[in-house]
Each structure stands twice: as C-alpha cells, then as structure tokens.
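> example.struct
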C-alpha cells in the first residue's frame, strides 16, 4: 500500500509500465545460455514496481520478475528475494540473476510458477497464514525500510486532504482524529513484526501441492503482528465479516482493530479519490468508515 501511496501522492516511485523490450531481449539471451529450449512472454504487472514474465525453460514453467532502472528499485526486489527465501526455503525454488543493460544493473528473480485459486480463503486461513510467515521471518535481519509510522503519517495527511475536498463529514473527520491518535499511542506498546503490507487475494498464490505462497513483498514493512490480517479485512469482499465480536475471536481488541482498519481505509480512500476509481464504489467514503462501528 505504501508504494502505491508514495507513487501517486508524492511521485517517489515510478511505474513499471513502458517499453520493456530491452528487458525482455537481454533476459532472453541470458536464459538461452543456460537452457536448451526457451520461451519468454511478458505478463501483466501484478505489483506497483514489478516487470513480469512467464517462461518455459526446458519444458518447465517459471515466473520471472525484475524492476525499473534505479538502485532503490533493485534494493526492493533484493529485499523480496530475501524475504521469500526466508519464508519458503527449499519449498520454493528461487534463483537470482544479475544482468547489465544500458550501463545499469538489473536483478531478476526467477522462481517456480504459481497458480491462482478460485476458492476464497476464510479469515482463519488468512490469520494462520500471516502467523506462519511471521514465525519464519522472526529472525530476519535484512533491512526493511518501510515502518508503520509512515502509515500513521499517511493517515493524517489523507484525513486532512479528504476533508478539505469535501469527501468527509465533520463527524467522521472528528472520529478519525480519535482513531488515528489511539493507534499512534497504542502500536508503540506492541511487539514488532515484518508484515507484507499489501495482503490482498491477488497476492496469495498456490503451489501444485496446494501450499499457499504469498508474493509481491514490495510493500513489506515493520509493524505489529496483526497488521496484515487487519489490512486484508479492509478489502471490499471482507465487509461481510464486519460484526460485533469478530475481531476478539482472533485476540484483537475491537477499538484497536477497527481504528487500524479505519486508518488503512482512509489511505485507500485518498488513493481512490485521486485516481477516480471511487466512482465505481457502491458506498461513500463516510459510509465505508462508519460501517466499521459494527465491529465494536
């Protein structure tokens, strides 16, 4: 979420869209040195900063990801490689390839091809998934630059911007001050954990044996253990779970949980307003935020 926010609000990130033929050409030549039969095709971007390919290498289907030019984007994919290797170890084949193109160095991540699932996971599945990968990352020492404090700041900025644009009522504007202040004070007392930062259905994939694999760690951040689960709950299909007592079933206090969700939804509303996608929403920003009261 933060990479999308910085890209759209401040222009601190770049889009991976554009002419990627040079990337494909140099990758194809490198692969042909290693494999007898190579087929390479571009696929649609799934993340904010990625450039993606699918490949058949000696008959085996693989997924390959690289990044736009720039050291910051290379560091991001190196971080992703380290995180996924730490979580999945020998259970998922991940290889790293470094190639020079136009006097700049690109890193390519090559891994087993994963499958999407038409079956929607239940909240308990998502919760257990987050607990599992956080255990695997408990000893992770690679630098994760995003911090939850940046989400707090983005929330304050989004609140002020949307109110100035007439998108929030005075009542909701005041409620958000209470919510963000509460989260800002409370999260500092919680244990830290490395979180995915953008855990949506499209970032949950499967191996052939049915094992869940979470991809696209470009938004990884240091937050608290429940952050990814609460973020997952903010996507529209999960609104069906907004009922009193739901958060407590997972050991999350209702005030803190719903306030964190309000913070995340507020940032999403900011992005949706700026890119115009909110026009397709069935409810207003105010209604979206007010319905969180069902959780308490």
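> example.seq
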């Amino acid at each position: 979420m933060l990479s999308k926010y910085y890209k759209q609000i401040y222009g601190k990130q770049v889009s991976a869209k554009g002419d990627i033929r040079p990337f494909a050409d140099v990758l194809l030549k490198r692969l042909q040195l290693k494999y007898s039969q190579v087929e390479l095709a571009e696929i649609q971007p799934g993340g904010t900063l990625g450039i993606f390919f699918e490949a058949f290498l000696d008959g085996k289907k693989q997924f390959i990801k690289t990044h736009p030019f720039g050291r910051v984007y290379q560091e991001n994919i190196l971080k992703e490689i380290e995180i996924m290797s730490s979580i999945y170890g020998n259970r998922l084949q991940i290889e790293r390839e470094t190639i020079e193109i136009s006097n700049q160095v690109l890193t390519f991540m090559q891994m087993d091809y994963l499958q999407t699932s038409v079956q929607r996971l239940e909240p308990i599945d998502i919760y257990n998934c987050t607990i599992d990968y956080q255990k695997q990352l408990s000893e992770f020492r690679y630098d994760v630059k995003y911090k939850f404090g940046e989400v707090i700041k983005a929330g304050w900025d989004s609140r002020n911007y949307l109110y100035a644009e007439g998108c929030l009522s005075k009542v909701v504007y005041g409620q958000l001050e209470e919510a963000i202040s509460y989260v800002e004070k409370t999260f500092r007392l919680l244990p830290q954990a490395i979180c995915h930062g953008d855990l949506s259905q499209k970032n949950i994939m499967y191996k052939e044996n049915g094992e869940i694999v979470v991809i696209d760690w470009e938004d990884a951040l240091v937050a608290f253990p429940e952050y990814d689960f609460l973020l997952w709950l903010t996507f529209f299909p999960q609104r069906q779970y907004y009922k009193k007592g739901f958060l407590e079933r997972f050991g999350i206090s209702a005030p803190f949980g719903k306030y964190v969700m309000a913070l995340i939804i507020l940032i999403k509303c900011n992005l949706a307003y700026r890119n115009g996608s909110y026009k397709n929403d069935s409810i207003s920003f105010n209604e979206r935020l007010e319905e969180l009261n069902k959780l308490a």
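> remarks
The beta strands are 38-43, 51-57, 60-66, 94-101, 104-112, 146-147, 193-195, 204-206, 212-214, 221-223.
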